[in-house]
Amino acid sequence: MQLNQLATFFSHVETQLEVAPDEVRRLFHGRGQCWPGLEQLTCDWLQGQLIVNVFKPVDDEFLSQLKQGLTTLSQSDVWRQKQGRTILLQHRYSDGAPSEVLLGEFDPRPVVVESGLKYQLDIGRNQNFGLFLDMRLGRDWVKANAKQANVLNLFAYTCGFSVSAIAGGADQVVNVDMARSSLNKGRENHQLNGHNINQVRFLGHDIFKSWGKIKKSGPYDMIIIDPPSFQKGSFALTKDYQKILRRLPDLLTDNGQVLACVNSPAVDCSFLIDGMAQEAPELTYVERLENPPEFADINEQASLKCLVFKN
């Protein structure tokens, strides 16, 4: 990364912080390659806590200037206006993503708000803190389309889509994920929002070994597929996604919708469109959802892809 570009980073962070709503937001997304010399930096605002991530090793001078600039930011008017409390620097290139608290007292389990809904985060223990911020408009779409729907949420993680679906009036959501600990956090997220847990099911199963159980709760009006790009021993994108697509016709209602997502830069939209045409030709491609503007990418096909299909 380039030391002489740090001024651009701080200027953009301060500008975005000033206009950010009182919700969780990404303020700077270097990973989208739109900021030359700053490709390995991100900055997230967690409603009082600023989390800066460095994804590759940098020299001592760059690190020193980065910390000095963050200290200066903490003395600004906008920091006071937004009631900033804490600045955390995470070294994502090192094992365990070690963190440094540069300012204030760090809260590792804050509750944040996105689109009016509450989520419990868990920062520092894993590289991901429990809510993928680039999926905000996907969750908004689910909320807007879930009224009276029976929803299947595959690779549910901490159940962000499920929270959005129940908030949007879904009758039932079935969440499936191998990680029971993530599903437990999903249960917490529903409880934070005062949802009726009787409307939500949490299945800690391997999806590919559980189609019988999954089908019992169907047919579904909405199916959400948001897998990891790769998970050792359980999911490989180019090999396993098709196995899910071919199951969709048996799981969907006649007018059911599918939100199929992929976040690997190695594939473009045609991976999903062509895959659906081959494995589930009954389903029609409708649209690709926009990504949040703060996640601008120099190559839109390399960024998050959320595609809507209809039966």
Give a topology summary:
Layout: H1 6-19, E1 25-29, E2 41-45, E3 49-54, H2 60-73, H3 77-81, E4 86-91, E5 99-103, E6 111-114, E7 117-120, H4 136-145, E8 150-154, H5 160-167, E9 172-176, H6 180-192, E10 200-203, H7 211-216, E11 220-225, E12 230-231, E13 235-236, H8 237-245, H9 248-251, E14 252-262, H10 269-279, E15 284-288, E16 305-310
Parallel strand pairs: 3-4, 8-9, 8-11, 9-10, 11-14
Antiparallel strand pairs: 1-2, 2-3, 4-5, 6-7, 12-13, 14-16, 15-16
Helix pairs in contact: 1-2, 4-5
Structural account:
The protein folds into 2 domains: 3-107, Transcription Regulator spoIIAA; 133-310, Vaccinia Virus protein VP39 (Rossmann fold, 3-Layer(aba) Sandwich). Helices cover 30% and strands 26% of the residues. It has helices spanning 6-19, 60-73, 77-81, 136-145, 160-167, 180-192, 211-216, 237-245, 248-251, 269-279, and strands at residues 25-29, 41-45, 49-54, 86-91, 99-103, 111-114, 117-120, 150-154, 172-176, 200-203, 220-225, 230-231, 235-236, 252-262, 284-288, 305-310. A 7-stranded mixed beta sheet has the order 10-9-8-11-14-16-15, sandwiched between helices. It has a 5-stranded mixed beta sheet with strand order 1-2-3-4-5, covered by helices on one side. α1 runs parallel beside α2 and α4 (136-145) packs parallel to α5 (160-167). It is globular and about 60 Å long. The model has no long low-confidence stretch (mean pLDDT 95). InterPro entries: SAM-dep_methyl-trfase (IPR019614), SAM-dependent_MTases_sf (IPR029063).
The name of the CATH architecture of the largest domain is: 3-Layer(aba) Sandwich
Using the alpha-carbon principal axes, give the shape. globular
Strand content: 25-35%
Order of helical and strand elements? HEEEHHEEEEHEHEHEHEEEHHEHEE
As laid out across the biggest beta sheet, the strand order is 10-9-8-11-14-16-15
Helix-strand category: alpha/beta
Largest sheet: 7 strands, mixed
The value of Rg in angstroms is: 20 Å
InterPro entries: SAM-dep_methyl-trfase, SAM-dependent_MTases_sf
Domain S-adenosylmethionine-dependent methyltransferase: 25-310
GO biological process, one term: rRNA processing
GO molecular function, one term: methyltransferase activity
